[in-house]
Amino acid sequence: MVDALAADVRYAVRVLRGRPWVTTVVVLTLALGIGANTAIFSFIDAILLRPLPYPAADRIVGIFERRPTGQPNPMSTLNYLDYARQSTVFEQISATTICCGVTMLGGVDGSAAPLAGLKVSASYFNVFGAHAAYGRTFAADEDQPARNHVVVLSHRVWAARFGSDPTLVGRSIVLDDHPYTVIGVMPENSPFDRGFVEIWIPVSFEGDRLNRSSHWLLTLTGGAVALLKPGVTVEHARAEMDGIAARLSAAYPDTNKGWGVDLEPYASFVVPPELRRSLYLVFAAVALMLLITCVNVANMMLAWALARDREVAVRLALGATPWQLTRQFLTESLLLSMAGGVLGVLVGYGTMSVSKTILAAVPATTSMLAIIVPADASVQLDARVLSFTLIVSVLSAVMFGLAPALPMRGARRAAIASGYRATATRAHQRLRNGLVVAQIALAFVLLTSAGLLIRSVVNMGAADTGFDATNVLTVQLSRAERHFENAAQLRAFMRAVVARLRAVPGVQDAAFVDGMPMNGAPRATFVQRASDRIVERAERPIADLKIVGPAYFHVLGLRVRRGRTFGDADRETTPLVAVINETMARTFFANSDGVGQRLLMDAPGFGSVYTSEAAAYEVVGVIADERLTPFDDRSAHAVVYVSNEQDSRDFLGIVMRSSLDARRLEPAVRVAVAAIDRGVAVTHVQSMDEWVSQSTTPDRFRSILLAIFAAVALALSAIGIYGMMAYAVVQRTHEFGIRAAIGASRANLIGVTIGDGVALAAGGLAIGAVGAIGATRFLQSFLSGVGAWDVTTWAAAAALLAIVAVAACYLPAREAASVDPVEALRKESW
């Protein structure tokens, strides 16, 4: 058996070397399809299939609080402490938060640079079973007041900011104007080095943090993370935590009534649903492209096999069995596929590397969650991915190798006796036509999918955001949490910066804001109509809250529907006022416009601390809905706006309108902020147009990928149709000669040839439409402003494929029309 296989391999090598152009085209085509699948699978494997890189990854859970409405919510200090103390299911539990403010690394000149910090309980690294590469992680009591001025650095920030100084461990650095001792550096290229977090600081609970109303413990994976005890299931832990939540609800109804706990495996938080859907979509697209590749190669191999009909007949006459012939064709296909797989690995590695570089540059915003690679996933071309490539290569070889092998099992022995090469049998013709139909059907599915995504992105660009982004500059600012001692000091800073910016030539107006448009609401508020029966705070509906400068509405050109916006007279000493959007007006004031009505909301505060007190705000205006979130969020958002002159809790940055190109103002902005307070850093400056464009980046990324795959599918389909029709013309040369001899015109011959190709294209479109129905249902969640059954997109995809089919048929048809009847009748039929 081994000798027979070796002989098959040697013969296959001779055959493939004898057709170098065919071999090269097949190998390159396969390399493209296999390489694309290899690259995408490297992401699928790292993000979805591999266990998280922690010793007890299956026992790690993330914990949120749950609102009475069922939505997850950040956690309050006292609730966390009760969950931690009363639970018996956890081996380790740690509070986590990215609140509040940014950790600032002090410079020798008095300036400060921002660092992305995560505040955690001392047990945080124990939850993950992680250890420092240099030094150590936190000791058990280092999250207690007066002992919490220690810091652990990521390897990345240690190298970038401190020159990989090995003596740094044990020394002090200045963070937020206070000395912190560096106790450890995390390993290079670990999950603690790939994420956005640069430093870890102990979170301590003291002073105004010790309450149940301030929900400030928040990260994407929960207000807390925990390690279950061995043998404890998620369901068991969830049941115990629900019991604790029920006791807290009964004991503290003003803050906890109806509230519960969301406890889920940590892995479910690491990969958000948007990213999971994006990966499935792209993987389905490359799988379709590989199928089209295999169909195209099968068609080429089928034509090649038919040209070898006489060889097959000789081998049969000499005693070869059908199985031996099939084995020979499969051997040739396997060699081609292995060569394509080797090149595919190189293509896949290059594609993966480029994709990682692009995705690493994506800013970590809420709109980018659909394409950001989690820090817990290490995307690489390892043995698992190479094994996948090998499997794909073998399956591909079988798929396109069987196509020419099966019809050969019935090859006619008469070919050797006649000395003529046989024409295509009906089995050949049916198989060849079926492959072309399949290719067109698969291409139509990809084309309609790509077309719908592209249409969706175009619609996003033309959609009404509620604001005018022209010549608007956004400036993000960073400062330490307690940089300002009180609200009066913070308001003085904001007033001074706005006044200085308004004096800059070309600046029309400026306003502070706590959250940029289309990047989600930075906070929420418990709210009810003041005229209704007063209910406990925890039972009130929740609305999105934005704290903005008085000029915010003017800077963005937000449309006032009724009433007014904020004015200079609305100060901390005047009655509280609010502006609401139209969705809020419809939700809370269905029978009136809301202007003049009062809302009972959380009272103004300072910093990130909420009290359980409520205050009445008078609604003074209603504005048209501002686009609050990226376009893939179809939810209606009820939004309340309050002035930062009355509620000075926080800010993210500034929005400015200019009569000039907004980007030209960046130097003046940096100078203005530094002149007022060098402890506040300008971290990011970009135009509002860039913010809007950034919100569509995941959609554009998906549509570009599918468009590339669809273009490849279209090209392969054109090649397949052309090759099939060209070979068919050669096969029918004798027939065309007879037709020409009895009076068929050139137009008749062209029409017959093109008609055959168009008939196959029509069949492919009909079958492809059925497949596209299923595909577009999956796409529905990605679309904005366009339905899955968009007639324009479907018609355009069908028309494009039809044009390509006709064009691919035309050149062979012209060859058929130029047949010399006399020469054709003399020639041996192919």
Defining key terms:
830 residues, alpha+beta, 11-stranded mixed beta sheet, 6-stranded mixed beta barrel, 25 helices, 26 strands
Structure description:
The protein folds into 4 domains: 1-58 and 276-422, no CATH class; 68-258, no CATH class; 434-463 and 695-830, no CATH class; 484-678, no CATH class. With 830 residues, the chain is of the alpha+beta class. The chain is elongated, with a radius of gyration of 34 Å. It starts with a helix and ends with a helix. Strands 1, 2, 4, 7, 8, 9, 10, 11, 12, 14 and 15 form an 11-stranded mixed sheet that branches. The chain has a 6-stranded mixed barrel with strand order 18-19-24-21-23-22. Residues 411-423 have low confidence and may be disordered. A hairpin with a 5-residue loop joins strand 5 (103-106) and strand 6. 49% of the residues lie in helices and 17% in strands. The protein is built from 25 helices and 26 strands.
Describe, in short, the structure shown.
The chain has 25 helices and 26 strands.
Label the structural class.
alpha+beta
Bin the strand percentage.
Answer: 15-25%
Please give the count of helices: 25
What composes the largest sheet? 11 strands, mixed
Report, as a whole number of angstroms, the end-to-end distance.
35 Å
Could you give the count of β-strands? 26
Global outline: elongated
What is the mean predicted local confidence, pLDDT?
A: 83
